[in-house]
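Agenda item 2: uridine-5'-diphosphate complex prediction
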Amino acid sequence: MVRLSDYRHFIGIDELEKIKKLASYLKGQEIVHINATRYGGGVAEMLSSLVPLLSSLGLRARWEVLEGDNRFFEITKRIHNSLQGNMELKFTEEMWSHYLEINRRNSMRFEEGDFTFVHDPQPLPMIESRENGIWIWRCHIDPSKGNPSVLRFLARFIEKYDALIFSLKDYIIPLKRAYIVHPTIDPLSEKNKAIEPSEIEKVLERYDIDSDRPVIGQVSRYDPWKDPLGVIRVYRMVKEKVKDVQLVMVGSSASDDPESGKWYELTSREAEGLADVHLLTDLPDIEVNAIQRSYYVALQLSTREGFGLTVTEALWKGVPVVARPSGGIKLQVIDGVTGFLIRDLEDAASKVIHLIKRPWLSRILGNNGREHVRRNFLITRLLMDHLRIMGELDKISRSKRYGAK
Ligand code: UDP
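Presented output:
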């Protein structure tokens, strides 16, 4: 059972009191969050902390997960990829109608709340079942270079929401009142809580990783946008200069991501002939936590990234991050302060080598990274943003109702 007071240690008593006060205005209200998967990916990660925290503050919070068949998730992956900028993908009438049909069926499974937060495009059309509540679409990806015809199709639903939330200013779709909320991590979750060094040793041993030698890696779904093949190429270059380095990649097969098997295969093929490569899948959170803590350097080579919670997680653990300057990564990796932003894969390899050879520099960047996350990207800040937004929308809706009478 989570309690807000457990976070006092990270944010101090004043912040805690502010949160409680904001929550008191909304006491007893029902809040529903709807997304497409309970495991894997940043959205599930965030909801598994946010929803219990809202409940602990006296709000009636629920988390509902869309049910769909493989066909549905193939279509929604196609929508996701088109919104992230793939212009090649085509959609047939049949695809759109299957997408809508699955949403219609899910609408019958759950009731709206006083506030209903719909996450990402998969459940977007559920707005059609709205009755009296306030509906908010929370877009976690970067749709700013999205395929215009797909955006046009989705606009008919987006327009019906009361408000939209995006991760960065650059991502706003200017159809409705929009808020910016940077994603966050939970410092007390299994993924991020402090663990004993002996636990880290044990996990490394379990996967046959040598704890006497440096480890680098990337934690991310096996997905083309995360550039897992680029990670292998960087490792190849690093390995030529630092003979004893090891690569540990951790990826999950999120249940809403049908492409992960294929990309895992491609990644392991790319790594053929390379020594000390560990491609791990579907690790429990506590093991992901241990692996991230074992990194000398964390890579995040995403070519497109909504925010990049894996970066936040690594920084929180005091690990410097070498990353492409994509999307929300730019807010987190401050070049030369919390890690390095890279131009290309050669640059990435040289920055990794630079850090492996300078433990003192890694220590400085690591400390900066942890403090940067503490100030800006902890779940308590997200909670505060959500409470503020609900308070504001509640006020607007009341004044509309009052005005209409
Ligand atoms: N994750 C995980 N196991 C994996 C791969 C990823 O638990 O094998 C988690 C990761 O720790 C992070 C989230 O999934 O919390 C990924 O969020 P991010 O914003 O980096 O990317 P997304 O998958 O949402 O595009």
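Discussion summary: The pocket of uridine-5'-diphosphate is lined by residues 41-42, 45, 191, 219-221, 250-252, 283, 288, 307-310, 313 (CB under 6 Å).
Owner for follow-up: CH.
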